[in-house]
Amino acid sequence: MNIKSIITFVSLSGVGWLIDFAVFGAIVSLVQLAPFFANYISSVCGAAFAFFAFSVISTKGLYRPRGRELGIYIAYQLFSITVFSLAIEFLSRLLGEYNFVVSGLVVAPLLAKVVVTPFTLLTNYVVSRLLIGAFSAATAAGPPVAGAVGAIR
């Protein structure tokens, strides 16, 4: 991990988070959908941007997960979005006494999203580095030898 990769990750993740947060705020405040469902929808938007940004912009197209790698990435994202959506729903209910509206925005779910965000950023960074490292090592090793111990393909 070098400083440039961390800055790139935080910058692109920041744009993805702004998309995620804007969609979340609009859905919670305008549509009045429960925070769990609003976060699920908004997080898919943010994850789609992040996938595009990291597989095309950040790596200049050099790293694009396909097949099994893509399946693992999607499974992780669905699991992560579900867990953090549950956390946002729980925190929104806990912060219910602060559920007032400021400039048309419902505050409690937005506060919950802000509280959960550092944890999502950290886990996404760690997991993405682990996945890219594992996939890169598997690719560099070439196709597995039939009957080899530890073959992952």
Structure overview:
This protein is mainly alpha-helical and 153 residues long. The protein has four helices and two strands; from the N terminus they run αααββα. It has helices at 3-31, 35-58, 67-94, 107-141; strands spanning 101-102, 105-106. The protein has a two-stranded antiparallel sheet with strand order 1-2. Helix 2 (35-58) runs antiparallel to helix 3 (67-94) and helix 3 (67-94) runs antiparallel to helix 4 (107-141). The longest helix has 35 residues, at 107-141. The two termini are 26 Å apart. The model is unreliable at 141-153 (pLDDT under 50).
Question: How do you describe this structure in short?
Answer:
The chain is 76% helix and 3% strand. It has 153 residues and is mainly alpha-helical.
Biggest sheet: strand arrangement: 1-2
Note the run of SSEs as H and E. Answer: HHHEEH
Q: Which structural class fits the helix and strand makeup?
A: mainly alpha
Please provide the count of β strands.
Answer: 2
Cα-to-Cα separation, first versus last residue: 26 Å
Rounded to the nearest angstrom, the radius of gyration is 18 Å
Please report the number of helical segments.
4
Assign an overall shape: elongated
Q: What's the rounded overall pLDDT mean?
A: 78
Helix content: over 70%
Largest sheet: 2 strands, antiparallel
**Strand proportion:** under 5%
Q: List segments where confidence is low: pLDDT < 50 over at least 5 consecutive residues.
A: 141-153
